[in-house]
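We modelled the chain as a single entity of 314 amino acids. Its sequence is:
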Amino acid sequence: MKKTKIDGMIKKLMKKEKTKINDIRRLEYQPPGSFSLDLEIFTMSNLRKRACGQSLLATHRYAFYTLIFVTSGRSRQLLDFKPLMCKPGSLIAIKPGQAHNFGTEINWDGWMVVFRPEFLGTSRMADQDLQLDIVLEQLGEHIELKEQEFSCVTEIITKMLKDTEIKAPQREIHTLLRHQLAALLLRLNIFYGHRVERNNDSSSQQRFKDFKRLVEDKFTYWHQVGDYLSHLKCSEKSLSRATTEFAGMNAKSFIAARINLEAKRLLAHTDQSVTAISESLGFDETTNFIKFFKRTVGTTPAKFRQQTNKSKLG
């Protein structure tokens, strides 16, 4: 394994850990030196040998997609407050912005495949199943591979690693790796994807994708469905129909869920006050944020933070 391949991530991980933090640590995709591909592959053992152990214990949010494929040992990792009990064959798919923690166990190993969101690209083919962001959504966050798929995934990742070292124009290597990644994700999705019967209205799917992208960009400013309609150029009825079809909830609930997810991340992983979090999420009054959080989550921000801290200690 070439050392330069994980230097970018290591530099981020080796920053001195603070007892108190004001935001969740964010890791950018920054490959070092001459390595200019938009996809990197390395093992957890390589990362662990070179990174500060305390840094690896911290919760991070990544600006890139991460696939963690456990090949040996067991660990309890956390992804947006959900404990994931991992063993050989476990595959975790982490999307940009999610809060992830490797856990405290060190006697496990596995592959990490990290890639920029732009690497997914947009397929020129008519088959909508080749839209890899949708494939990743259907795949889910945590799956347990059977023996046959375990061997297949190992083989594909090993091949991809070797192909990152081919001396050829970057565009050609990117195309090769993208097809290999697509084949891997589609294979996994066939056997493990959470598929839902949907109609053939591609405009509905595109509407949801546009809405989701806009919510991700504006949820700290726009809290009402009406804020999004003029930009999406559709009615509230058609928007909620699309979000219900692809997310299982209406547009209003989708916005609220995104606000609450960010609130939970900040309450659990930072020392920001409830007032500061309220302001960062676009609420004019802290009391309005507390009422919103309690109504939609079922508890107050303070109690949620207290319960989360207790679970960490436990």
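As a brief sanity check on the tokenised model: The first strand starts at residue 25 and ends at 27. Confidence is low (pLDDT under 50) at residues 10-21, 123-129.
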